[in-house]
Amino acid sequence: MPTLKLKPKHRPFCFSVKGHVKMLRLALTVTSMTFFIISQAPEPYIVIAGFEVTVIFFFIILYMFRLDRIINCILWPLLDIINSVVTAIFMMTISVLALIPETTTFMILGGAITGKT
Predict the structure, then answer these.
(1) Is 106:35 a contact under the CB 8 Å cutoff?
(2) Helices 17-38 and 43-64, interaxial angle, to 10°?
(3) How many beta carbons lie within 10 A of that of residue 89, not counting itself?
């Protein structure tokens, strides 16, 4: 009698731990960018935060459509790690620069939120 192999149940990306972390990261980065826009911070702060929002959104779409399973020639976990390191470096730099004198309350809030991603 042959045994039936059941496929493991695939959890949709939005309901996985990885999905929750990426969504939280997106929310924090959007909040930071919003504070920078409200405070009329220098344009590089807004541009870098906007770039990070775009990259995070790209990864969320990529994982939602399961393109990471279709495109096998890229090491996706390594790409995630590299993305996280680059994001951390950019956001830490913005956080420090946002705390330079002549800042507004919203710039400080944007820098404080950015430093926690």
Answers:
(1) yes
(2) 160
(3) 10
Q: How far apart are CA 78 and CA 76, in angstroms?
A: 5
The position carrying tokens 């890229």 is 74
Cα(80)–Cα(45) distance, integer angstroms: 23
CA–CA separation, 97 and 104 (whole Å): 12
pLDDT recorded at residue 30: 93
Q: DSSP class of residue 35?
A: H
Indicate the pTM of the whole model: 0.71
CA of 56: how far to CAs of 48, 51, 117, in Å?
12, 9, 12
Worst-scoring range by mean pLDDT, 2-6, 10-14, 26-30, 32-36?
2-6
SS3 113: helix
CB–CB of 41/98 below 8 Å?
A: yes
Q: What percent of the chain has pLDDT above 90?
A: 20
